[in-house]
Specification:
- By secondary structure, the chain is an alpha+beta fold.
- Helices cover about 30% and strands about 25% of the residues.
- The chain is built from 17 helices and 22 strands.
- It has an eight-stranded mixed beta sheet, sandwiched between helices.
- A hairpin with a 4-residue loop joins strand 14 and strand 15.
- Helix 4 crosses helix 6, helix 7 crosses helix 12 and helix 14 runs antiparallel to helix 15.
- The chain is globular and about 90 Å long.
- The structure holds one RNA strand of 78 nucleotides.
Length: about 600
Amino acid sequence: MRAFKLEKIAIKARTHTCGELRAEHDGLTVTLTGWVDSRRDHGSLIFVVLRDVYGISQVVFDPSEDKQVYESARELKNEYVIKLTGKVRRRPEGMVNPNMATGEIEVVAQDVKILNRADVPPFPIVDDVDASEELRFRYRYLDLRRPELQKNIVLRHRAAQTVRRYLDGQGFFEIETPFLMRSTPEGARDYLVPSRIHKGKFYALPQSPQTYKQILMIAGYDRYFQIVKCFRDEDLRAERQPEFTQIDMEMSFVEEEDIFRIAEGLMRTLFDEVIGMSLQTPFPIISFDEAMQRFGTDKPDVRFGMEISDVSEFVRSSEFKVFSSTVAGGGIVAGINLKGGAGYSRKQVDGLNQFVIDLGGKGVLTAKVKEDSWDSSIRKFLTDAMISGINEKLAAEAGDLLILIAGEKMQTLTNLGKLRNKLARDENLISKEEFKPLWVTEFPLLEFDEEEQRYVAMHHPFTSPREEDLALFDSSPGKVKARAYDLVLNGYEIAGGSIRNHRLDIQMKVFNLLKIDDKEAREKFGFLLDGLRFGAPPHGGIAFGFDRLLMLLAGENSIRNVIAFPKTTSALSLMDNAPAEVSEKQLKELGLKIIASL
RNA sequence: GGGGUCGUGGUGCAGCUUGGUUAGCACACCGGCCUGUCAAGCCGGAGGUCGCGGGUUCGAGUCCCGUCGGCCCCGCCA
C-alpha cells in the first residue's frame, strides 16, 4: 500500500516516491521529494533517510562522489523539506536492511535542494512516539506525519472506498441529507445552531439522518446509504467523539434477515479488502435476554468464556441471609468463575470487591475452590449440596476463584459483566488477533426512565414492535420486544438498526407509550407522520459506527487514532482551540446574549 | 454531574511518603571527532524554579485549598 508508484500520480517535481524504489531500479537517476526523517553523520559519509506518505528511502552523501553536495548535506536537519536527485544503487554486500521495504537500495546524492526549513519538532516523528496525547493533539499536523497514523488514515480511505463500491454493487444510492435540521425530542442532547434569519430559532445538527432516510424510503429510493457525520452533545469516552461518522443505510421491502445479509456482506468485504482477513458468515445471533443472562451486557465480547451463571436456585434456602433474602425479594445470586484464580491475594480480591462497589454494587463474595470444599467466608452458611450445585453450575475445579454477587437481577448481571471484562483484561484472556462478530436481537422496545418517570425508546421511537407483541401494548409495555438488532464485535457495538414503523396507527401507539401526545407528535414529526399516510413501504436499516469499526480494523484501542482531527475527552480541539468565544457583532446578528457563565 | 490518575528543561520520566545542600536521568538539541550507518558511536556543551492561583511555614517541586488541562471510568450516549 505504501509502495505507491509515482507514475500513477504524475507530479513533475519528482520521478518516484520514497517508498517505491527496489533493486530493479539499480542505476536509475531519480528525483525524490519529502521530509528528512533522520541524518546520520559519519564525518565524511552522511546518511539521510527521506520520508513521504508512501515510505522511506536511504540517501548517501559521499564526498568522493560529489564534494559540494556532500557539504550541503551537513545543513540538513530533521523535518526539512527537500528535493533530492541521485542515482539508485544496490547497497554493498552486508549493508542491506531487511527491515526496510526499500532496504536493498540507496540513492547516491547528486543534487539536493532545501524547499523549506523546519524548527526542531516538539516530539520526534516516529512510530513509537512517547509524547503525550495532549502534545500530539496540539501539533496534530506533526502527529499525522507519523507513519503509524498515516497508515490509519489511509486505511480509513480504503475502507470508505470499499463501502462505496460494495453498496453500489448492491444497488444502494448514496444520497446526502441536511446537517441543518430541526431539533427533535428523545435521544442524545443536540448540538444547536442559531438561525440569523429567524432570530430565537435554532437548527440542530443530526444525531443521525434517521428521519431523512425514512423519508427517502417513502419517496421510493429503495436502497439508500451515506457515509455521514453525526453529532451528539454527550460526554466522551475512548470510543466516543462528539462528532463521529456512520455508514448509514436504509432499505425498503425488507425484513431482519435481508439487512443481516447485506451487513454481513459489507463486513466480509471490508475485512477481506482492508486487512485481508476472512470472516465466517452468517454471524451468530443471540437475544438481548440471553446476552444479559450469559454476559451481563448487550454487547458481549465472546472471544473468551467466563460466562455468568445464576445460582439462585441453590442458595434460596441458605442460612446466609444475604443470599436467601435477596432471592426471596425477587433478586438473584449469580457468579463467574475465574479459572485458576484461587491464587488471588487478599489485596486482589479486595480490589474486585471495590471495583463492584465503585459501580454502585454492594460488593462481591468469593470462594477459592479446593479439592473437597471451598475456602471462603461463606462456606459455613452453605450445605455440601449447595456447594456442589454451585460448583457444577460454574464448572468449578480445584484452583478456581468463584466470584458471586447478590442483588437486583439487572444490576447484578451488569456488574458481573463489567467484572468479567475487567478480569479478562487483567488476566490477558483476550486474543488480539481474533474477530468475533454476533447479532444481538429481540431488544425491549421500551425501557423505563426513572428520572423522567416514563418509558423511553430503547433504540429510537421509529422502531417497530414485534407483531406478536402488539397485544402487550396496554397491559405490559415493558415486555414488548422491538424489531431491533445490534451488530457486536469484540465487545463493541459497531452497528445498530431496526425495522421501522411504516403503519401510522402503530407509530402513533408507540408515541403514546412514550408519552408523546398527538399534538406534540404532529408538531415535532408531522412531516414523517404525513409521509406514512402517503404510501410508505415497509422498510428498515442499520448504521455502522465507522470510526469504531476502523479502530478495530486498525488494531487501535482509541477512536482518536483513526480520526484525523479528534477532540479531547472534554470536547476541545487543542490544535485550533475550538470551541471559542465569538464577537459581540456575531452574537448580535444572531439575537443571542451570553448570560454570565457559571 | 461524580470518581480515579497525571501535570517537573524541547520530550519522556525520577525527586514528593519523612518540607531545607548547585532539582537528577535518558532522549532530543548545539559544538567537535569519525567512510557503512539504519536506536550509529565517542568527547564536550547549553537548556528547567517544578500547569496556574492562594494558603501553611523561618523555608514548598515536596503539605493544604482552589483552578485549568490530558487520559480512564460511572452517570449520560434513542
